[in-house]
């Protein structure tokens, strides 16, 4: 009898509403799977239309075009003699479901709707879909005419069922169901399902990959079985980067691992595994077998097809491997770099422009672009024709081959140091040296003329001339003068992004990169509509602490020695006058808190769901060795005042790569008011009462 089954899973760089491109990538993955002997192919969640369609799911066009793509798949000889499992939205009895459509040889075997919908953080699936709540129940689904004409079927099973082939039994999960407390694989495994599949749309968060891997391995460690996970990869049109990591696990151990970050649009994993290993593993788990004898059975869809071959004794079987996880510094180097590449090629622009100040944040952003250039050159060296074609189109040269990251960086990356009378020579030198080492096209300019012109207009109209505090002005005057400098830099950044290539006799325009980190955004330590206002921001979801570690990683791995002096310099906005030619303004002094403290406040506010009083209660224990309760109270109050006063700035925050679970992104991740009663009188009174008691 057949024992060795060959199955395939994949990570696809799908793009929301790119039906043409999505279909082509699905076909490529099926072709690779078949060429490697696979008899079953699993794809990512909602792969036909792309996961990130958002409110486009409401449109009948999205449903129509998804079925048109399905029609092409069913008709094609490429999908013959392999069970294909694809994802798309389906309307059943006027209710929209997130579904898997499983077919074989022009016949749809089962449409399986998602049972547990993702509805936290960045996910809003309940806005567009309804969960299937009828456990182990199947209904008839009436196929659209265009599908009936291909399959010859009028209706197909729709609901919570499993597939019974001639040699094994398969059951599907969809993304969130793996993370749910009552995951379907538990009951399915008890009912004899030997192969579990999971099609995901799971995005990257720093230090998250191990959680996904552990869940998959633990799913089969307790119950035995084969678990196959597919995932979306890349930027499909918004702030998220889907990080692949397709994998196959058996009996609690990983047997195949896909890459977390790569520029390959299509990645297919194939594994051959012995079903008898599953059966023998389960045989000695008596607690599982007792529970299995009482389980409520699933409806089974019988499939006259085998995933194994009759004569398979000599077929080599895949063995367990050790999963290799990236360090957080590697994740920062690779994830945002891949996201930037997707954004650049899909927006059809000619490169990036970055206001490079010589500080840690803008330098880290520059290093991420440099890492992107490394990834492009490596992909081309490894024979990636898609990346080569995109690179040639971006640089407008049909014969170009990117081989040297510094040379490619020169073509696609412009950096600009915008000096003022408040800038030091040190930061100017640091920016210039870093630009030389990464190879960017670097511009030095001075903004004093523009600043004087703008302030001059105000003086003519009002008859008053504002001054900095060190020259006798009020804090209002000083802040306004700082903001003028910051906003003029934003205006100039966009001007140079639009016309720099024109001035150099080259076609196209540049995307402006922002470089505000997640902690500064949380505190509101930025000028509204300054250089934090850009097209996209690769570090907007990364903490200052992690960025410092990333800078050290770049020194060691990219040999960017210019970063050493940047690392050792205190962070400064350089918006106030110099004192004896030296910088007197520092970020942490301006903010009234350290970056390390900001990271703690951010995690407590968002992840621990702490308001002012709860945050105070947690911190008096966390900081009992370094702060008195009264000092903790003062720090917490200052943070919440500053956070609430500046929350309005989050409504215009530049779209940023999502990397941290305490991101203050107002778009859809961190939904809060932006007009607060900033006195927090009731909350602060509760803190004061507790301080007095202590």
Using only CA atoms, what is the Rg?
A: 28 Å
What is the correct CATH architecture of the largest domain?
A: 4-Layer Sandwich
What's the total helix number?
A: 24
What is the percent of helical residues? 40-55%
Protein name: Glutamine-dependent NAD(+) synthetase
Family: In the C-terminal section; belongs to the NAD synthetase family.
GO molecular function: ATP binding; glutaminase activity; NAD+ synthase (glutamine-hydrolyzing) activity
Keywords: ATP-binding, Ligase, NAD, Nucleotide-binding
What does this protein structure show overall?
With 694 residues, the chain is an alpha/beta fold. It has three domains: 4-302, Nitrilase/N-carbamoyl-D-aminoacid amidohydrolase (4-Layer Sandwich); 328-573, Rossmann fold; 592-693. Helices cover 41% and strands 17% of the residues. The strands form three sheets. Strands 1, 2, 3, 4, 5, 8, 9, 10, 11, 12, 13, 14, 15 and 16 form a 14-stranded mixed sheet that branches. A four-stranded parallel sheet has the order 19-18-17-20, with helices on both faces. Helix 11 packs across helix 18 and helix 23 packs antiparallel against helix 24 (681-693). The protein is globular and about 90 Å long. The model has no long low-confidence stretch (mean pLDDT 95). This is Glutamine-dependent NAD(+) synthetase. Keywords: ATP-binding, Ligase, NAD, Nucleotide-binding. InterPro entries: C-N_Hydrolase (IPR003010), C-N_Hydrolase_sf (IPR036526), Gln-dep_NAD_synthase (IPR014445), NAD/GMP_synthase (IPR022310), NAD_synthase (IPR003694), Rossmann-like_a/b/a_fold (IPR014729). Pfam families: CN_hydrolase, NAD_synthase. GO terms for molecular function: ATP binding; glutaminase activity; NAD+ synthase (glutamine-hydrolyzing) activity.
